[in-house]
Specification:
- This is LRC72 protein.
- By secondary structure, the chain is of the alpha/beta class.
- The protein has two domains: 2-149, Leucine-rich repeat, LRR (right-handed beta-alpha superhelix) (Alpha-Beta Horseshoe); 216-253, no CATH class.
- It has helices spanning 80-87, 109-116, 130-140, 142-150, 189-199, 206-217, 233-238; strands at 2-4, 24-26, 46-48, 69-71, 95-97, 122-123, 126-127, 220-225, 248-253.
- The strands form two sheets. Strands 1-2-3-4-5-6-7 form a seven-stranded mixed sheet, with no helix packed on it. Strands 8-9 form a two-stranded antiparallel sheet.
- The chain is elongated.
Length: 254
Amino acid sequence: LLLFSSTRGLRSIPSLSQFRRLRYLWINNNKIQDLTFLIKNYYLTELYLNNNELTDISGALKHLCSLQILFLHNNELKKLGKTVKELKGMISLQTLNLFQNPLAYDPDYRLYVIYFLPSVQLLDRKLVTQRERESALHLYNPKRAWVMQSIGFGKRVDTSLGTAVGSSSCTQPARRPIIPSVLKWFGNVQEMDLLCSFCRVPFEDPEDAVLVRAMTRSLMEFSSVDWNKVATCQERWLKNKAEEPPEKLTVQFR
């Protein structure tokens, strides 16, 4: 169901509760100040309220969970936090216009909307970029941003669950680091690392330096036990003799 009632100079609209299946509503270019007439229109997907005289939308739109397009530009909305809070429940909202409202002059207005309304993809006729989302996260949730950046340096490794740990699909042999000749006199990596910290002898390839350093610090250990060979509590009660500890296989990766 579609209802079009724009450019009529309307100041108020009677309740639209009889139109329960209303999905598209144009009431832009009027003088509307109150939205209580929308209290029963849960199926709205597109709502055009631009160019009116709205000063507050609290309690009027939060029930519109199916809304995908919302135009509120060129009104008198002043409180950014209060306005965004009203829209938080709109998980399907993708297009939002809030420009030409007093709240849009807040210096962090765009990042604030992007962070608290993550489903919005087109804000004020401009696509939301990944860089803007990252900036918004750093600004409003720096702790979460730090955690995400610290896990794999902010990158995700696309590896299937069936891939064995430590295995590689590359057929080329592993490249050995080209170590400066002065370090070849030392018998172990710890001594090489100690010497590097004093004399700072450069490697021919920076990646070799990273690899040598990683060999002294980076270590992963995986242990596995065959639980089929471990006795259950009931089996232990039936046996009076001491049991041998289960075999544990431990593999280390650098």
